[in-house]
Amino acid sequence: MRLAELSERSGVSTATIKYYLREGLLPPGRRIGATTADYDDTHLRRLRLVRTLIQVGGVPVAKAREVLRHVDDESLGRTIRAGAALWALPRLPEPEAEDDAVVTARAEVDRLLEELGWSTARELAPLSPDHRSLVVAVASLIRLGYRWDARLLAPYARLMHQVAVHDLDNMEEYPSEAERVEAAVASAVLFEPVLKAMHRLAQEEESARRYGLS
Amino acid sequence: MRLAELSERSGVSTATIKYYLREGLLPPGRRIGATTADYDDTHLRRLRLVRTLIQVGGVPVAKAREVLRHVDDESLGRTIRAGAALWALPRLPEPEAEDDAVVTARAEVDRLLEELGWSTARELAPLSPDHRSLVVAVASLIRLGYRWDARLLAPYARLMHQVAVHDLDNMEEYPSEAERVEAAVASAVLFEPVLKAMHRLAQEEESARRYGLS
């Protein structure tokens, strides 16, 4: 398809598509003349992922380029390929201080991973920004005086593991490896708000069941 | 305890405590002299909740006051009391347009709630900001071309219901009604980052189990 059709089908303006091409977020089309190029479904899919990252996820252009470089690296196995892309997503800044709360939180998270038998998570802990995010989140609970330890965290972690099982089952329904990796990255950005809203709705529902509405 | 001790034990400066008192975020202490007042554990707990809302949740002062007014309204039943406080928390702006994606998303969310038998969530749907957040989140998936329907959403919603069951079980361990409502609000702000980080870690773990690390 030509640029105009790519714009029409993706809902992205031709000016924005040209910008993404210049920035290397979208691979060039196949040249079919001095000023025209041909695009295909892979461009359509890539545009969807770029919009997800930039417009929904608020990922800066340079970061998006880094995420996509991992998505496109066919030399990597699937876990590392999707993992590297996800690890490149921007996060909240980490606290500079290794205060008592962080030390306690790290010990509880380590105990949690051991109890759960999550051996990869334990092995990757020193590298994983997700491990650090969990330690930081638990530290802020502890700092405010809420007592959250491995025993209280474990049932939540088991449920989130079941969520991850559904994620990967859904991902496996995509026909190509490129689409599977793209879907893993897109859903990490897009699915968090869905889970968060479901969680709140479920709290209301369960509260009404236990205590009524009045 | 005096102001100095309240500051010491809460880790909040006396200047900030005075500011919270002036803004009505913290109830006044019991007067015990012309210039001194006595504070107790309820003040300590309230300070913790105020810090959670303002420093962690990024809630503006006026909003925090509104949330706390609901928390303190003993005339309300527990579901409504915690619910009203949670509904007052700030959210992402809603899209102005009722486009096709929003219409489709609302129909799928309605089907989902019916299939799940979440009767309160259905009854409160026209009022609930959480229902609207779910519709908006599903609409953004649909708009990007990811096909998410009630059938795909249902297993996630069932898992988030189990998460909510644990939330309420934990909440019920607090000794007083005031503490239970406070814990519900604080955990809504503080626990989302924990669940999000656990979800990502679980994805890595499950991916490594299925496909290995190389």
Structural overview:
- The first copy, chain A, is mainly α.
- The first copy, chain A, folds into 2 domains: 1-90 and 174-214, Multidrug-efflux Transporter Regulator, Chain: A, Domain 2 (Orthogonal Bundle); 91-166, no CATH class.
- The first copy, chain A, has 10 helices and 2 strands.
- A two-stranded antiparallel sheet of chain A has the order 1-2.
- In chain A, a hairpin with a 5-residue loop joins strand 1 and strand 2.
- In chain A, helix 3 crosses helix 10 (177-211) and helix 4 (61-71) runs antiparallel to helix 5.
- Chain A is elongated.
- Chains A and B meet through helix 3, helix 5, helix 7, helix 8 and helix 9 of A and helix 3, helix 5, helix 7, helix 8 and helix 9 of B.
